[in-house]
Design brief:
With 268 residues, the chain is α+β, with helices and mostly antiparallel strands. The chain has ten helices and nine strands. Helices cover 50% and strands 22% of the residues. Strands 1, 2, 3, 4 and 5 form a five-stranded antiparallel sheet that branches. The longest helix has 37 residues, at 162-198.
Length: 268
């Protein structure tokens, strides 16, 4: 059997002609990464031994060898990240493999129009990630003291007999938790709306639990934004402004980037 082709990403051929690839080792740590020109699109790839890196063997390593997985995932991430600093790149997911150069060429040619449109979208733009965290206890204190619905419920309870108050106070606790979540959503959506005014595009991602983040506060929002390079500074300044305005009520913003534009150039 011949070698497999491991695909890191796709770049415009014009950019690939203007700047050579760095001397990077490929996925197996031995052979070099190289470029494969396919018309106006150039694939950044490496070759892998088809026996050692069969679909079955890779799946087995992913499921059973965490050290190998971490090493190879880091290699893929760092390679694509470094390439994104040099080229307009459509990044491919970890372990995107083709049986041969011919099969890769056919796949690229069949999607060439969409890929070139994606290059136009990504050119001179950057992907940034914004995670918003919230200290629920601090925010709950503010909500408890200032929320009109809670104030109204508390006043209503004060007019009841002591026996009825007990059960209504349980409802009040539930109301406070509900209003807390609504306040978190309201603030996060407001921030997202304002950031979208600066960004070219913005998408909402799934929030992570504390077991993933390792933080004591909860993740309230997770967004990715495609931002013109000329707007990155105003984008970051807007977030710093929100951080300053909201920190006393338990809010914290974590901004990272620029990243390869995985979320705005999805190709399987």
């Amino acid at each position: 059997m011949g070698d497999l082709i491991y695909l890191y990403g796709l770049v415009p051929t014009k950019e690939a002609q203007d700047r050579s690839l760095p001397d990077y080792k490929g996925f197996d740590g031995s052979r070099e990464i190289y470029s494969l020109s396919i018309g106006n699109i150039t694939a950044v790839v490496c070759k892998l031994d088809s026996t050692e890196y069969s679909e079955e063997s890779i799946e087995d390593r992913i499921n059973n060898d965490m050290e190998w997985l971490q090493e190879k995932a880091f290699h893929h991430h760092e390679t694509v990240l470094n390439l994104s600093k040099m080229f307009t790149i459509i990044p491919l997911k970890f372990c995107t493999l083709y049986k041969s150069e011919d099969s890769l060429e056919q796949a690229v040619q069949s999607n060439a129009v969409k890929m070139e449109q994606t290059f136009s979208l990504l050119a001179n733009n950057e992907e940034w990630n914004v995670k918003i965290y919230c200290n629920d206890q601090l925010l709950k204190q503010q909500v408890n003291e200032t929320n009109p619905a809670i104030e109204e419920k508390r006043a209503e309870i004060s007019q009841l007999s002591k026996g009825k108050q007990f059960f209504e106070k349980k409802k009040l606790e539930t109301l406070i938790e509900t209003e807390l979540e609504e306040e978190k959503n309201r603030v996060s959506e407001k921030v997202h709306l304002h950031l979208n005014e600066i960004a070219l595009e913005g998408n909402v991602k799934k929030t992570w639990g504390k077991d993933v983040t390792g933080r004591k506060d909860n993740m309230a929002w997770n967004g990715v934004y495609l931002i013109p390079k000329s707007n990155v500074e105003p984008f970051l300044e807007r977030i710093q402004q929100y951080e300053k305005e909201l920190k006393d009520t338990g809010w914290h913003f974590e901004v990272t980037g620029p990243w390869p534009a995985y979320h705005f150039s999805s190709f399987s």
